[in-house]
Amino acid sequence: MHVTYVVRFQVLPDRLERFMSLLNGVLDAMREEPDFREAVLHRDPDSACRLLLVETWESREDADDEQIHRPYRRAYHEALADLLVRPREVTEWRTLRVDRRDMQQESQHQSQIESPFASRRAGEPVEARA
After folding, report:
1. pLDDT tens across 81-102, in order?
2. Using CA atoms, how far apart are residues 31 and 56, in angstroms rounded to an integer?
3. pLDDT reported for residue 97
4. Does residue 119 lie in a domain region?
5. CA distance 55 to 90
6. Is the pLDDT higher at 80 or at 62?
7. CB-based contacts of 81: which residues, under 8 Å, 6+ apart?
8. Strand 47-57 relative to strand 36-44: parallel, antiparallel, unpaired?
């Protein structure tokens, strides 16, 4: 059964660029994992430093036992204490139902969404509105 983790972050305003650089690296690497299903990063429209990450994996066992310990996560995990206002909040959820629009329609819709934090390569500047 799929497992979804909802992760809430309150990033320090002067550390947002560094945080996004590290998180984008983790998300880019996760995409290559066989048990990875999806990750969606959201930003609070009233605060660029409040972020919500929703990531879904094939199984809880893989996510808990394997994924959390991947080497590509090390720098990200080690930096969190210096980047966040408070520790991230992680909650676990089980999928009951999934509804998605057709992938072609989704692709068209996605291109219309403003995203200053779109997946970027490490080192690229990130616009931050605090």
Report:
1. 999 999 999 999 988 888 888 7
2. 11
3. 85
4. no
5. 11
6. 80
7. 87
8. antiparallel
Give the type of residue at 17: E
Query: What digits encode the pLDDT tens for the residues 21-73?
Result: 999 999 999 999 989 999 999 999 999 999 999 999 988 876 666 677 788 99
- CATH number of the domain where residue 31 is located: 3.30.70.100
Six-digit token pair at 115? Answer: 């995203």
CA distances from 28 to 40, 44, 73, 94, 111 (A): 12, 22, 11, 23, 19
**What residues make up the domain containing 90?**
3-111
Residue 126 lies in a domain: no
Residue 48 falls inside a structural domain? yes
